Amino acid sequence: DAKTTQPTSMDCAEGRAANLPCNHSTISGNEYVYWYRQIHSQGPQYIIHGLKNNETNEMASLIITEDRKSSTLILPHATLRDTAVYYCIVRVAFNNNDMRFGAGTRLTVKP
Amino acid sequence: GAVVSQHPSWVICKSGTSVKIECRSLDFQATTMFWYRQFPKQSLMLMATSNEGSKATYEQGVEKDKFLINHASLTLSTLTVTSAHPEDSSFYICSAPTGREKLFFGSGTQLSVL
Questions:
Q1: In whole angstroms, what separates CA B64 from the centre of its chain?
Q2: Percent share of chain A, pLDDT over 90
Q3: Which residues of chain A are at the B interface, by a Cβ-Cβ cutoff of 8 Å?
């Protein structure tokens, strides 16, 4: 069963912020929220992850609600190269646990 | 950062032949690696977990005699698609956890069986 729910697709204008939501209402206390993206015919690329605090890196920001039941990935200034399928995944970080993918959100950045 | 190398990037083979795909962790040791399969316009599906020094664990519905997995060292796992048929044509992806929080993916292998 899918542990996360994401919109099937979203559009964003180039240069604007892209906000991708994810619901994970059954998340456990020891599960992290991970975001990956996949550009056509490539392996998934790591973006960011977090447990309960908001996180920011050079690629994106991750906002996790206080109850941890949902999160939002923010790409601050989307470019055409950000067009991809974005996957939100919850996973216990340690013990070499596997990672299981849902359907993801297909983000299309338009000029 | 940690890198996972997958080879080859693409392969075309005749029906009935076997194909081997390699997955290497380049700057960290991976006692576990994961193999995924992805059909066009679909998400990644976990096929099996490769364990160094022991047998692989296969997901339900995945034929272990069809998809042979060997994890001979702490940096190398291989997936062999035996007696390949056109329905085995797919995008195969490996990944390796670093033992900490991150998990990295290979670039994938596009298999086309004629």
A1: 13
A2: 87
A3: 32, 34, 36, 38, 41-46, 49, 87, 91, 93-94, 96-104
